[in-house]
Amino acid sequence: MGLGDEMISKALSLVDVRKQFGRTKIINGVNLDIVNGERHALIGPNGAGKSTLFNLISGRFPLSSGSISLHGSEITNKEPQVINRLGLSRSFQITNIFPKLTVFENLRCSVFWALGYRYSFFRRVSALRDARESAEQTLAMIGLEDRREKMAGELTYAEQRALEIGITIASGANVILLDEPTAGMSRSETDAAVALISRVTEGKTLLMVEHDMGVVFNIADRISVLVYGEVVATGTPAEIRMNKKVQEAYLGTQLEGDEE
Amino acid sequence: MSEILNKGRLVLWGGVAFLFLLLPFVFSGGFSLSMLSQMGIMVIFALSYNMLLGQTGLLSFGHAVYFGLGAFVTAHAINFVEAGAFGLPISFMPLVGGMTGLLFSLILGFVTTRRPGTPFAMISLGIAEMVAASALMFTTFFGGEGGIVTNRTAGEVILGISYGPQIQVYYLIAVWCFVSMGLMFAITRTPLGRIANAVRDNPERAQFIGYNPTRVRWIMMSLAGFFAGIAGALATINYEIITAEALGLMASGNVVLMAFIGGIGQFWGPMIGAVLVTLLQSALSNFTQAWLLYFGLLFLLIILFSPGGISNLITIHLPVWRAGAVKRLMPSYGFALLTGAITLIGVVGVIELLYRGFLFGGVHVAFTWIVSGLMISIGGFFLRRAIREVKQIWEDLSPELARWG
Amino acid sequence: MEFFFITLLNSLSYGLLLFMLSSGLTLIFSMMGVLNFAHASFYMLGAYFAYQTGLVFGFWPALFLAPILVGVVGALTERYGLRKVHKFGHVAELLFTFGLAYVIEEVVHLIWGRAPVDYRIPESLNFTLFTLFNTQYPAYRAFMMLVSVGMLISLFLVLTKTRIGMIVQASLTHPDMVQALGHNVPRVFMLVFAGGCALAGLAGVLGGNLFITEPGMAFAVGSIVFVVVVLGGMGSLVGAFIASLLIGAIQTFSVALDLSFLDLTAALGVVIDPDSKWYGGLSITISQTAPVLPYLLMVLMLIVRPRGLMGTRES
């Protein structure tokens, strides 16, 4: 395998990424490679900096130091929309949708840029078949067809979470970041969400933050453990389970409990 | 489905065109004709304002700047035409105003749209103050106190249209109003229009679907400036004089009132606002000095009790209509209307007494004070009950409406 | 030198007056997230109330009564207006205060008429404090500064030494945290709003007789206060303080400078023909540009540093 192939095979590459707010260090030199096409879960105790790391990757916060590249091209400190246009899309832990647009419009707005409509004000949306079909497709995928014309703000919590994922994947970005997609869901809702996530990230690269170990071991090909702003271990679920350091630092009994 | 909708929409727009055509025959007096012309101008202006507030979520207190600058440049352009410096038919002068509005909103919008929300509101106000103060400084261009006078008959007479008679000016305004309305409505149905809504709802998320919210706001503001400029140019043609007041704070505040009273949630809301406010302004200002106070009170009442404006009041009744439940609301509405009218008359009595300086006086004055006071207290007492009743019926209706909504 | 000192003193007293207005606005904005558009209207009410109570009780009681009355009006506004609109969001709140500014101005028309009222500097303060070179410095300006500084110190003490002050101060930097700690009590909102309005009222008591008490005074000063707040950075008291003094200085000095571009060219030995096309533009004096300068400064600030001098928080 040549160097070039290796570059391409990395969907995301974080090199010595650091972030501090004032004097508080949140991320202390994270090195992490996400391989193209894998489903990678980021776990760790509360306050480990998982969401912050997501915010750094997606351009929401600037880095204090270090660099991040997406498919080999530098995205460090680029604006969120620029990173998004390069093919990285993310969801939010706290539902972040367009409340006064219909469900369908939420999804259609999410595909405009990817389809090249940019800031166009001389094309009628109703004439844009590709945008409509793409939005319909996502709508079917997240199972909200019967909520098509409802205001997004009026959906139930679980529906809004599904829409959140829908907005994230609608544009067809190939690197998807999901931030606690099952947070606050009941058991059955979680199962539905897991099925949804597996379905919509087919053939894509997924990096997700998740607390529910059942979900993590169900979906992830590889897992990284973040503790106090550092990655203490990366490996397959089996490796992580066996890892002493991880067990000490964070997992311990919780892992076995969730395994059943 | 969309075929049928489009057909319905076509009928609707046809109806609007027909209405514009017909209005001067119904209201043919000189006063009503000039009022209709003014309404047309204000409809464009208010709709262009709503591209900012309703569609993009930008609360601007300086929109009259683009109206005013468009008007002034048009005035000079017409004067150039009269001097023979260049030839452009008066009919196309609104384009001059529009381009001026576009140019200035591109420049100023670049600065103001960098921050949304409350800072935007304050900054737009500051910019408006700056332009208004400059207008008093550069008297050559803005004509100082007297303003700039023009002659709308300056152009060549084409097909017998000289723009001498007001009716010709009315139809010019009507055509431009119709075209502008159509264009502004069309913009709401483009990717930019939809993304503007998205940015209004949640600018941060818009970034994560690939859009730069600042850019979206800037483009929307520029387009709004374009239509405001068209309205300004029409004002110049209509009045043949333009003063610095046109771009001042009062004018900017006025369009906020129009848009909000009409309702910013529906495309057509500001049109209602523009028509109503223009009507009230010219009707009330003839009768009472206190018209601005009534106006401010109306505005406060709408914010307190129906922040969606008049258009929202209409929209929320559509499901009631469909459910056939209007009958059940009617009695309480009648009661509220009656008690409301009594209270209102009392309030008007007090305000007018104060305005005319009748704190004390003869028997008549004392009598009016007592009657007004009684009307306010009795009317107000029953009005509160009426409002409670209305609320109760709405609550009772809500499960039924949910089925129809 | 003489011109410089006197103008500096004048600009200082004016700047402090501006701070009295902008500090109230900033406190309300930081605490409640509401930009009080009618803030300058409360300033105007302060002047009118002082005039009216002054007619009955004299200036000194009015100095205390008027701000308290304005504070009461502010409290009522918060209780029966803003609190109801709150659920509709910030735009509705802002528009409510905007409508209120209209109504207050009209009510002032209604009660006191459209002409200026005769609100005068009290006799006891109407003397020359000292004479610098050839210019007499009025005692009232010094008194204004004294009250402003006194207000500044007591504001500082209230904010740092009292419990409610602590809550208010904490909400300047960590609004969410304060809310989470359960201090989001409506009563605190009402007090802060009333307090901010009372500060504006006090500024009106002091400014009304120095300048002029008329219905247009609110709109005249209102946008300047907004410039101050934007310039200083929204929500920053320190920023508002610096910006108040800065705008005070700019306005006072520019009004006093009767120089034009023509004078500059003349000083350089170039005389411009009065018939020249550019004569009109070049003959504009600095004092004529005075009304525009604060806004120009604001625009420049927005280009260079959009968050303002001391601003940390976005909207």
Tell me briefly what this model is:
Chain A is an alpha/beta fold and 260 residues long. Chain A is built from eleven helices and ten strands.
**For this structure, what is the CATH homologous superfamily of chain A?**
P-loop containing nucleotide triphosphate hydrolases
Number of domains of chain B: 2
Helix content of chain A: 25-40%
Shape of chain B: globular
Order of helices and strands of chain B: HHHHHHEHHHHEHHHHHH
Count of DSSP strands of chain B? 2
Gyration radius over CA of chain B: 23 Å
Low-confidence stretches of chain B: none
CATH architecture of chain A: 3-Layer(aba) Sandwich
Structure overview:
The complex is a heterotrimer of chains A (260), B (405) and C (315). Chain A is an alpha/beta fold and 260 residues long. In chain A, 38% of the residues lie in helices and 24% in strands. Chain A is built from 11 helices and 10 strands. In chain A, the strands form 2 sheets. Chain A has a 6-stranded mixed beta sheet, with helices on both faces. Chain A has a 4-stranded antiparallel beta sheet with strand order 2-1-4-5. In chain A, α4 (103-112) crosses α5 and α6 (157-170) packs parallel to α7. Chain B contains 16 helices and 2 strands. With 405 residues, chain B is an all-alpha fold. With 315 residues, chain C is mainly α. Chain C has 14 helices and 2 strands, in the order ααααββαααααααααα. In chain C, 72% of the residues lie in helices and 3% in strands. Chain C has helices spanning 2-32, 39-57, 59-85, 90-112, 139-161, 163-173, 175-180, 186-210, 217-232, 237-256, 261-267, 279-282, 286-289, 293-304; strands at residues 128-132, 135-138. A two-stranded antiparallel sheet of chain C has the order 1-2. In chain C, α2 packs antiparallel against α3 (59-85), α2 crosses α8 (186-210) and α5 packs across α6 (163-173). The longest helix of chain C is centred in the N-terminal third of the chain and has 31 residues, at 2-32. The interface between B and C is large, with 48 and 48 residues.
Keywords:
heterotrimer, B: 405 residues, mainly alpha, two-stranded antiparallel ribbon, 16 helices, 2 strands, 78% helix, globular, C: 315 residues, two-stranded antiparallel sheet, 14 helices, 3% strand
